[in-house]
Each structure stands twice: as structure tokens, then as C-alpha cells.
Amino acid sequence: MSDLAVTTSWYLVLGALLFLIGGCGLLVRRNPLVMLMCVELMLNGVNLSFVAFADRFGDVNGHTVVLFVLVVAAAEVVVGLGLVVAVLRASPRATADDLSALRG
Amino acid sequence: MSGATLLAVADTAAGGFPLLNALIFVPAVGAAAVALLPRSRPDLARPLGTLFAAIAGALSLSLAWQFDAANAGFQFESIVSWIPALGISWHVGVDGISLWLVVLTSLVVPIVLAGVDPHHNPKPYTAWMLLLQAGSIGAFVALDLFVFFVMFEIVLVPMYLLIAGWGYEGRRYAAMKFFLFTMAGSALLLVAIVATAVLGSPDSGITFDLVTLATTQGLARNTARLCFVAFAIAFLVKVPVVPLHTWLPDAHTEAPTAGSVVLAAVMLKLGTYGLLRFGLYLFPEASAWAAPVLVTVGVVGVIWGAIAAAMQRDLKRLVAYSSVAHMGFIVLGIFAFTAQAVGGGVIQMVNHGVSTGALFLLVGMLYERRHTRQIDELAGIQSAAPVFAGIFTVMMLSSIGVPGLNGFVGEFLILIGSFETRRWWTVIAATGVILAALYLLWAYQRVFHGPPAGADRTTPDLRWGELATLAPFVVAAVALGVYPKPLLNAVEPAADELLKHFELYSGFDVPDPRDPVVVRDSSDSSGEHADPGHSDPGHSEDGH
Amino acid sequence: MVELVWLIPALPLVGFAVLLLGGPRLGEPRAGWLATAASAGSFLFTVITFGGLLGLDAATVGGAGGHGGRWHTSTLFEWMPIGGLEVDAALLVDPLSMTMALFVTGVGTLIHLYSVGYMHSDPKYSKFFLYLNLFLFSMLMLVLGDNLVVTFLGWEGVGTCSYLLISFWHERPTAATAGKKAFVTNRIGDFGFMIATFLLWTTLGTVSYSGLAATAPNLASGTATAVSLLLLLAAAGKSAQLPLYVWLPDAMEGPTPVSAMVHAATMVTAGVYLLVRLNPVLTDDALLIIAIVGAATALFAALGAVAQHDIKKVLAYSTVSQLGYMFLAIGSGAYVAAIFHVITHAFFKGLLFLGSGSVIHGMGDEQDMRKMGALRMAMPITAATFIVGWLAIAGVPPLSGFWSKDEILLAAWEQPDIGPLLWLVGLVTALLTAYYMSRQTFLVFFGGQRWDDKVHPHESPATMTLPLVVLAGAAIVGGAVNLPLVGDWLVLEHFLEPVFAHPHQFASGTATKLILALVATAAAVGGIAIAVGAWLRSRIPTQRLEPALLENVFYVDASISKFVGGPGTAAFEAAAQADKRFVDGAVDGVGSLVRLVGRMVRPLQSGYLRHYASGIAIGAIVLVLWMALRIAL
């Protein structure tokens, strides 16, 4: 059973997978809401890695960073979601490509 | 730290009424007060703003009154620690060099606020003018590099907004050009300030204090020279010297009248004042090293500005170019390193403010009447508006440097002082005196003389209000020309002190005119001393 | 009484101030009388001060610079004290300054009085007197100044007033241009004045005349010559010598009293005064150059005067020519002769100008002599006094002009280097002077009537004729102050002697003096004779006496105008364009460059979120690969 022991690597692989999924989703999806969720996914992938390392090395700093990230993510969701909802309310079928007013 | 606490702390620190802090904060508070006026009463903005500016003006007069002319050091000092970790403190003080610039700034702003109508949006206009006044006074009294930089930058924003908001046709372009030019200089200034403080502070710890840094002289020679170059470029842009001057004609021409006046009277002086306070004082050796270049640049400015002025078709642009020429004299004076030249430079800063400021006011009034500044479109104004023409003549003669009016005193002292150390430069600069007569009289002839045609004949003469606005300038022009002694008395000890400091650290031999070598170039045998009965000039005094 | 000297300039200044504030309200003629009273009061105080000066013992030893006891400095206040520079607002009472002040206020008062009538019904009546009083004040500061800087104050002041007065009728473009030209040309001279002041101060450490007189012997000769030549430049500007004379003929655009006062009697002699005042500094080399400049100017301007048609232009060129005589005297070391001629010239040239003004006034503003003639019937007083002036300037003994001119010619003769040549030039000038002045007198007052019947010439009012009569008297007997040929009657010479570092001594014997005087008289008579032959008797065809070359005064003025208007303006314009194109162009170029780069990189900002995201992703992958590679290697 020992070879099935859940080592740190598992967490890291999972974190990387979450990050990758989030990243690919961000790149391929057009719905701003979904894109925002993908960003959350990426953040949490990174969080998982931090927690895993913190556990592995017994360093509390990893936990601290995660807490910071959670707060930032929460703030980001508030603002981002607010913006996205406002945009979707104005034009319900809007995609991220329609929001290209900042083109140079 | 808010202004209120600063005031309170400074009070205890200086042990008296913190006059300089009050001078900075009264207009600043005034700006806030004007900004907070209800939107329904824009008509209150200018009276209220004028009141605050005038309070500052009154304070500056009391400052001049209490100033001890015999004291060469900084007076009315107040030091409050601001950012202790970096050695930054709110350190202000005034000496004979900055005193009259403070007075000039404090008096010019209320006059133009009261006398010049912005035509629209008086509330922000007044607020910006007050902030400009606060920042300029702050820059003149700052004795901490960081505080100086903050003030130097604060001045920039209101002026940008005044030009862009209340200017003439090309205001956007002019404002942007002005801003970019000075910001480019400021970037260098910031780097140099940080470098000077970090590398040049005494062993006891980092400090931005000007006096400490200047007396420590902790920078290696080449570092000091580099820093000086950065400082000098920032200030030379502001002066401005050729070839960094092209923002000035645009800014002056497009700025509203009040903006032009303050720009000429106050802001250009930040450059020359900076060269004295943060060039000569902070980097004596580097100043001596760079002096030949700077003197040349000054003389080139005198000639180039005059030639360019002669060919302008826009009267306001012509006055702007004449500024370039006049400021070139000051640069020459500062880097001639004699008591007369440096003192004359300081006096010339004030005088240029008076005469060019008044000329800008006059051109503004002409524009109000005729809606043109093109010399070609005007003629024979003197027939219709003799009083206007008369005052223009007086200020023009002052600008030309006719003795008896203020312009002569500064120019003469600069030239006679520079002649000792920079003979040939001075000779070339003196030809600028001929050119000044040429371009101003030519312009005057085209605008005021000749037969009036059409609208020229009905150009109204000055109104009482306008006369009252101009009167202080005329009075100052005559008073400073006839009796400049009070100014000189205050300037002289400070200039001497500065030059002593400069001589100590630069190794430059400042000629001491108190001990004139009677025959400095005696090369032939005919230069024998006169017989004793003749060689005592004291006899002229006790001859009666 | 010498302490009252400050009142001399103070009175015209007060007059100026009153007229400035209340001139238009005073109106005509009160403004004129006020100004005249100020001037007369000034003259009165000059006389009082002069009496005080005479009261001082000339023989007292110990005055500054060996001036004897007749030397008083009255310091009003410190003007520009800084460092070792001590510039006081101080007035100097000595024989030279008093001599100048006496005739300046004296002639000035007469011309003020004359103007009361002449400026009658001019719309800017009070302003004219305002300027006139300011001019008198400046002129007095010039001659009474105790140091170079106060003199410079007066120097520039008279220049400014000259500008204001020449362009008095500023609606006439020619008047406006003439005023500007005068000021700018004078400024070229002022440049010399300033540099000379600087040079003296840096080498001698003083700018006061007493100090300069005491220390001048210590000057190295090279420096002294440089200073002298710079002073010559200054004097040439103010006193209209070659090559800076061009402004004076044009200055005749001003009202005639101005021409008489500013451009004949007082201001233009300031250059002579300056050189005489600073005589201790002048070196032999410089004196020779001064003499050459003076002689050349005298001859050149006399030739110019020969063929003018404007009544005032003749007198203007004549003034330039006479000033050349004064410079010739200075250059020959005969300072007293120069001052002597300054005084007599003030009398007879002031008289001639005022006379011409009277003619212009009576003729209804006609200045062309070809449209005059036979005016002696219509205006007898003017004609009589004008004739006195004519004979005086022509050098007919015993009128004042003869004495002063004779002394100059004698001094020139004795000039050690090229004396006889200078004398010859002076003699030819004397002949020409007699000729052109006779021509003018005949054209205006004699011969047939050439004016339109619509014009009604009339004699001028008493305010105008009285000064004429007084000046005519002075022009007749003025020579009495310094009669060289009659025993030891050299009042002016002895009075002024203490002022000079090297008093001039005439070396020639009485016989030489007499012969020279006779030759000069013969030249004068010869000149008059030619004029009689040409203009009264028509024996000599007059056209041949007036070639276009002389009428246009060798085209000097035209050439200068052409140069200034052509290549000069073009060069300035080119510089101004360079400022716009290259200097400002470079600035705008930087702006354009930034904009260009911006335009090139702008497409990178597509506005599509996924583009940015893929950019980040690709960047991250590249970064990771790079790090992996570094570890692997």
C-alpha cells in the first residue's frame, strides 16, 4: 500500500493540472463568466502547490501566502464579477472578443 | 503629514510665528477654500482667491521688513522631521538671494488675480493660481532637496492646466510641450537629488538637507560633476537657455495673460535660482568646471534670443523671446563668480519679473481690445491710446535697460561683474544691449507709431482698473531703478557668503573688489605710481 | 553755495513730474510757461552755484587729481553699492561741469521760451514740454554727474528723450523711423561707453571722476588706448561722428526747437564733454585717431551740407561738421578750444536752428529752400539774427565763431604728427562752411520770391523772436570768454585749466598765429564770395555745384539702409527661421519619433483578452523551458 501513499508530488501534479485546465480554459473560452472561473481555477492550482510545499517543509509562510491569495481572489471576483455582470446585462450575448474597446 | 500639524510643530520648532510656513500654506489653504466654494457662486472665487493671495503678499512684505539684511545666513528657518528614515525634513529658510523672489512671487499673484479676468471658469482658475503661488514660494524657501523637488513639481501642474484651460488657440500643443520639456528636466533632477543624498550624505546618515550636503561635500569629483550636469539641465530648461528654449515662446504666447505674467515673473526664476542654490552652492567644484560652457550658453541666449525676437510677427512671442535674452544675462552673471555679477543676477531676476511681467500684461490688454497680437495688424495705437502707449514705453525702456529704470541696475551689475572674470563673453553679451533696443523699438514703432487705420483709431485707452493693475509695476520699475539699495543690501551678504563657500570648495579665485589692485595689467614702465598728492582719492570727500 | 547744486537738475525734474501728472489739465500756454520757469530756475541756481564755485580758492592745493580747490562733490545717496563697487548718485561741481551746465540751462531756457510760441496749438502741447524738461534734467545729470555711471544715466536719458522728441509727431512714419534710428545708433556708442566703464573699473577700481583722475596715470598704455577708443566710439555715437553720424540728419524730423536744443546746442556735445572729462585717460595714439575722425567728419559733413535743399538738413550736416571740429580740437590736445567751440556753437547753431524754425513757422511748415527767397522783408528780426548766425559760423571776425574756430585750426596746425594736413582739412572745411551757410542765407532771405502766393510769410511772435535776439547777442560777443589773440584774456582757458591732466600750451609765436588767422579769414571770405557769385549774382552755374553725389551725401545713408534692409534683415530672418526649423524642429522631431514608434507597436494591443493571455502563457512556457535548459546543461 505504501506505493499508493499520497506524497507531496500528488498534490503538486494535481495543482499543475488545475492550473493547466484553468489556463487552457482561459485561452479557449469566450464567455467572460467562464473565463473568470478559469482564473479562479488557476489561482487555486497555485494555492494547492503552496499548501503542499508548506506541509512538506513545515514552513508557515506558504499558508500565509495562500490566505493572501484567497483574499485577493475574493476581491478580484467581486470586481470582476461586477464588471462582467454589468457587461452581460448591457448585451446578454457578449463574448470576451466583443470587449475590445482598448484596441490600440 | 497634514499642513495643520506641520504648522503646529514648526511653531514650536522656530519659537516664533512661522512666517515662511504661513507664506506657503495661506495660498494653499486658499486654493482649497476656493475649490470648496459652492458651484452656484463662481463670482466669489476671484475675490476670495485675491484675498488669500494678498494675505500672502502682506506676509511677504512683513518678511522683508523683519529680514536682517546684515545676516548672510538663512533666516526664519524652521525644521520639522518629515520622513526620518530617509533623512527628509521640512526645512525652509530664506536668505538675501531668495528673499526678493519670495516677495515678488507673493505680490505678483494677487495683482494679476485681481487685475486679469480669466473670462470663464473662475473657480478652478483661481485655485490653480493660488496653488502656483504656494508651490513657487515653497520652491524658493525650500532648504531640503526633497521638499524642493516636491515644490518644483507642484508648480508644474497648475501652470499646465492654466495654459491648457484658459489659453489661446494653440494652447493644447503649448501646454503639452511645456509639460514634457520640464518633466524631462525633472526626471534628471530627481535622479540627481537621490544620487546626491545617497552618495553625498555625511557618515552620520543619509540626509536630504541642503545645508548639510553643501557643507559636507561628500561626493567624489566625477560623481559631483555628473550630478551637477543633471541638476543644471533641469534648471537650464526652466531658465530657459538656447537650445532648450523652444517651449517658452509657445507657452508664453498661448498662456492666458495671468499665466504669462507668472510664468515670466516667477517660474523662469526657478531655473536661475536653482542654478544658484543647487548648482553653485551644492556643487562648487563642478560649477567652476562647467562655468565656461554655461557662460557661453548664457551669452548665446542673449544674442540668439534678441535676434529671434527681432523677427517675430506676434507681439507676445517677441516679448517671450526677449525673456530668453534677459535670462541669458542672468546665467552669465551667476557663472561669472563675482559679487557684482551674482548680486546683479539676483536683482535682474526681480527686475525681469517686473518689466517682462508688465509687458505681458500690456500685450494682454492690447489683445483684449483688438483680438490680435499680430504686429502687422496693428498701427498707430499711440494716437488713440496715449496712456497705454506711455506705460508701454516705460516698461519697454526698462526692458532695454535705460538707467533710472530697474532693468539697467541688474544688467549693469551683471556686466560689470562678469567683465572681471569673463571679459570677452561680457563684450559679446553687451552687444545684446544694442539688439534689445533694436527689436523693442522696431516693434514699438510698428504697433504704436505711424498713421492709425480702421480699428486702430478707436482702440480704447486704459481703464482705471487696468491702470491700477499696472501701477505697481511702473512704481517698482522706477523705484528699483533709482534706489535699488535696499535690495542690494539684503542680497550682498548672501551673495558674498555664497561666493566664499564656492571659493572654499572649488579653488576658483574669486576676485575681491574690496581690494582693487590699481594696476592689474601694468605691463609697461609708464604705469608708475602717481605722486602721493594725487593718489589719494579720499580727498574728493573731504574737499569741502 | 555749491551745496545747492542738487537744485539744478531737481527743478526740471519737478517740472517733469508736474507735467506728467497734470500736463493736459494745465494746457496751453500754462504748461509751457511752467516748463520754462523750471528751466529758468535751473539756470538761476546754476549761476548761484557757479558763484559759489568761484568763491572757492582755485589755488588751494590738495584737490583730487590736482584740481586745486575748485572741486566739490555733493553725494545725494548711494545708488548701486555692492561688493567693492561704489556707485553714488552724486553731483560734481567743478569748472568744466559748471561751464557746461551754464550754457545748457541758459540756451535751454531760451529754447523753452521759444517753444512756447513755436508749439502753439499743437494737440500734444504739454507733452512736448514734459519731454523737454525730462531732457533738460537728463542733460544736467550728464554734465553734473560725479562718476561715469551717473553720466551714463544722463547719457541714456538724453538719448531716450531724443528718441521721444524726434518721433514726437509719431503719426509720420519718417519721424518714427528717425527716432528709432537715432536711438539704435546711439546704442552702438553706448556699448562703447559701457565697456569703457567696465575696463576702467576693473583696472582702476573706481568709476568716480576724482578717483579716475588720480589713478589714471597708473593705467597701462594699452589699456588706456583701448579705453580711449571705446570712449571715442561712445562719443562718436552721441556726437554724430563718422561712421555713426547717420542718425543726426534724420533727426531733423523732430520739431525745430528740439533740433536746436537736442541736436545742435546740448546733447550732441555730450561726446565732446565725455572725452574732455576723461582727458587723463586719453593716450597720444588715441588722440591722433580722434583728430583724424574729427577732421574727416568735418570735411565729409561740410561736403554733405553743400547740396541740401531742406533748410534744416543743411544745418544738420553743418552741426555734424562743427562737431568734427570739436573732435579735431580734442585730438590736438586743445581741450579748452573744444569746449570753447561747444559754447560758441551752441550760441550760433542754436540761433540758426531757431531762425530756421521761425522761417518754417512763418512759411506754414515749408522746409524746402527752393520755395523760399526774399524773406528778409517779411520777417526782418528773423533775417537779421539769422545773418548774425551765418557770419558767426562762417568765421567772420570778430564774431564768436571766428575765435573758437581759429583756436582749433591753430591747435591742429601744432599737432605733432600730421598737423599741417589736419589744418588743411580744417581750412577747406572752413571755406565750405562759409559757402554753404551763405548759400542758405541767400536762398532763404535774399534773391527773388519763389514761394506760392497762397503762402503768407509773417514774423514770429515775441516769445520766438526774443530768444533769437538774445542768442544773436551771444553769438556776437561769445568769443569774449576766450580771446587768444588779445593779450592774456584767456578767461575760459585759465578757468578750465585745473581740469586737465596735460594742459595744452600753444607753441606758435604771434606771427604764425596772425598768419594762420588771416588765412582762415581769407578762406571764410572766399567761401562767401563763391556763394555770392553763384547764388546772388548768378555768375557761376549753380547746377554744377550740386552733383547728385553730394546731394545724397556719398550715398552712405542709402547704402546703410540698403544693407540693413537687405542682407541684415535676411540674416536675422534666417536665424529666426533656424530657430523655428532646426531647434524647434528637433524638439518636434523627438515628439514625432515617439509617435512613430508608438504607431508601430500599437497593433500589439489588439484588445482581445485571449491574445494577452496567450502572450502570457507563451512567455511562461518559454521561461520555464529556458530555466529547464539551464539546469539540464
Describe the protein's architecture and organization:
The complex is a heterotrimer of chains A (104), B (544) and C (633). By secondary structure, chain A is mostly helical. Chain A has three helices and no strands. In chain A, helix 1 packs antiparallel against helix 2 and helix 2 runs antiparallel to helix 3. The radius of gyration of chain A is 17 Å and the shape is elongated. Chain B is 71% helix and 3% strand. The longest helix of chain B has 32 residues. The N and C termini of chain B lie far apart (65 Å). The N terminus and C terminus of chain B are likely disordered. The radius of gyration of chain C is 31 Å and the shape is globular. Chain C is mainly alpha-helical and 633 residues long. Chain C starts with 6 loop residues before the first helix and ends with a helix.
Write a concise synopsis of the structure shown.
The complex is a heterotrimer of chains A (104), B (544) and C (633). Chain A contains three helices and no strands. Chain A has 104 residues and is mostly helical.
Instruction: Please list the strands of the largest sheet of chain B in the order they lie side by side.
Output: 1-2
Gyration radius of chain B (Cα, Å) is 23 Å
Residue ranges of chain C: pLDDT <50 for 5 or more in a row?
61-65
N-C termini distance of chain C = 108 Å
Shape of chain B: globular
Most extensive interface between two protein chains, with residue counts? B-C, 92 and 80 residues
Class inferred from helices and paired strands of chain B? mainly alpha
Number of helices of chain C: 24
The average pLDDT of chain C is 88
Oligomer: heterotrimer
* Total DSSP E strands of chain C: 2
* Annotation, overall tally of beta strands of chain B: 2
Helix content of chain B: over 70%
Radius of gyration of chain C: 31 Å
Distance between the termini of chain B: 65 Å
Tally of separate helices of chain B: 21
Low-confidence stretches of chain B: 1-14, 516-544
